[in-house]
Fold this sequence. Notes:
Elements: E1 15-19, H1 24-35, E2 39-44, H2 60-69, E3 73-78, H3 84-98, E4 103-106, H4 113-116, H5 129-151, E5 158-162, H6 174-194, E6 200-205, H7 212-218, H8 241-253, E7 264-266, H9 267-274, H10 298-328
Parallel strand pairs: 1-2, 1-4, 2-3, 4-5, 5-6, 6-7
Helix pairs in contact: 1-2, 1-8, 3-5, 5-6, 8-9
Amino acid sequence: MTPKRSPQTPLTGRVALVAGATRGAGRGIARALAEAGATVYCTGRSVTGKPSPYGRPETINETATLIKAASGTAIAVRVDHTSEREVTALFRRILRSHHRLDVVVDSVAGEDPLLKQHGFLWQADLRNADAMFRQGLTSRIITAKHAALAMMPAKRGLIVEVTENDIIGGGANPMAHAVKTAQKVLPLQWATELAAHGITVLAITPGFLRSETTLQHFGVTEDTWREAGKKDPNFLVSESPLFVGRAIAALAADPKVRHRTGLLLSSWELAREYGFTDYDGRRPDWGRHKIDFSVLPPEWIDLFRTGTDLEIEWLTTLAARARKFRAKVPS
């Protein structure tokens, strides 16, 4: 995949960090931020000579090489984001070298196999629960904490949590549910706390993402991905990882981005507003796509129906309570 490079680089002079830039959304986001002119730090655990614990071949070095080949600026740094010591050292290094940090995007554990294992509450295998929470959630809190500390003196900055789907529900097992829900709700709390410091915090989801793992699952490559539409028609509305990256680049370049703080956004909605496309000129819109549910087990459809009905009721009730409480708070 060779993206069509935009002639505009609105992020020139800005410094960005993409945690979990090894593959998938993280790699696409790192490439898009560099495409827009930012200097991008690409972090993760998988480096040349030390492959992924997931058994995947991708590395942060490969991500940095792709960026440099497209005339971008990238710096690969091996960091385990579950280690506060390593994360602290990373932020110190960035500030020492550049004296600024404008954008921090966290996509760590986006494709952790443990979070993908399906199972109902009563089937949950809890032996790896602590590891799942530490990798998918504690790491996010550690990184956001130090991103906030790095940005507070300048009273500006953008922190983005990459998650999965644009409703509260999500995840394939109880631990994944907790992790994915927290990735959407914590930015709301952090946005509240950091508003006075001029820092914007939000969550974002891609649509049907053509990550390396997904392509392998369908037995296709990025060049032949449309062939997978024969197995799942919904895949024809999929997006490359660069698409959600361009969404974040557009947000980072928007001087009014603070008006979005605390929100859960999507790549397709932002594409409608900002007008960016995927690398091939397409503008996939998962939100307007009429999903073909025939490829899914019937019991899943029942779950989706029940889950969304309950979520609507829950959010409606919560919104009413929030309005009543806000009326009591002095303006």
